[in-house]
Amino acid sequence: MSDEEEVDTTFESADAGASTTYPMQAGSIRKGGHICIKGRPCKVVDVTTSKTGKHGHAKCHFVAIDIFTGKKMEELCSSSHNMDVPNVTRTEYTLIDVNDEGFVSLMSEDGDTREDLSLPKHDDSLAKQIKDDFDAGKELLVTIMGAMNEEHVHAVKEASN
């Protein structure tokens, strides 16, 4: 081996190392909170807890809705075990444009623009409302919900001047 051997240290992507989820004891997850079911971020709509039985722990039965697809999901877990909870973020952007393919141009408060998101595919009424209000010349604020390296248009409201 020579001292001049070249080592390739290029990285394809850089990440701050922040996890997309964090653990939480199943017994402390409440209705209205978030959990991961089958690797998908979900909002809890119902929690029922059974009593401890002959063979140990109380069980928690979660009914949740996938925050991106709207699909209903269920999970049964021992109340003393940990479940993954997604880090969910909400960001508001000003809507600049909606193109013919359904992609939206957005501007953040500090003036940064992004054009990588499309109108919601699972919520036709929201997509229609955004398009109709934009075509009517209204100034709109769009809420983007993000979790587990995924982002979608989640809500819209008229900007108050």
TrEMBL record:
Residue ranges of every copy of the Translation initiation factor 5A C-terminal domain listed in the record: 87-157
Superkingdom, taxonomy of origin: Eukaryota
Gene3D superfamilies: 2.30.30.30, Nucleic acid-binding proteins
Gene Ontology process terms (BP): positive regulation of translational elongation; positive regulation of translational termination
Keywords, sorted A to Z: Cytoplasm, Elongation factor, Hypusine, Initiation factor, Protein biosynthesis, RNA-binding
InterPro entries, per the entry: IF5A-like, IF5A-like_N, IF5A_C, NA-bd_OB-fold, Rib_uL2_dom2, Trans_elong_IF5A_hypusine_site, Translation_prot_SH3-like_sf
CDD domains: S1_eIF5A
One GO location term (cellular component): cytoplasm
Keyword Cytoplasm on entry: yes
Compartments, as annotated in UniProt: Cytoplasm
PANTHER family, A to Z: TRANSLATION INITIATION FACTOR 5A FAMILY MEMBER
This protein's name: Eukaryotic translation initiation factor 5A
Native species: Pycnococcus provasolii
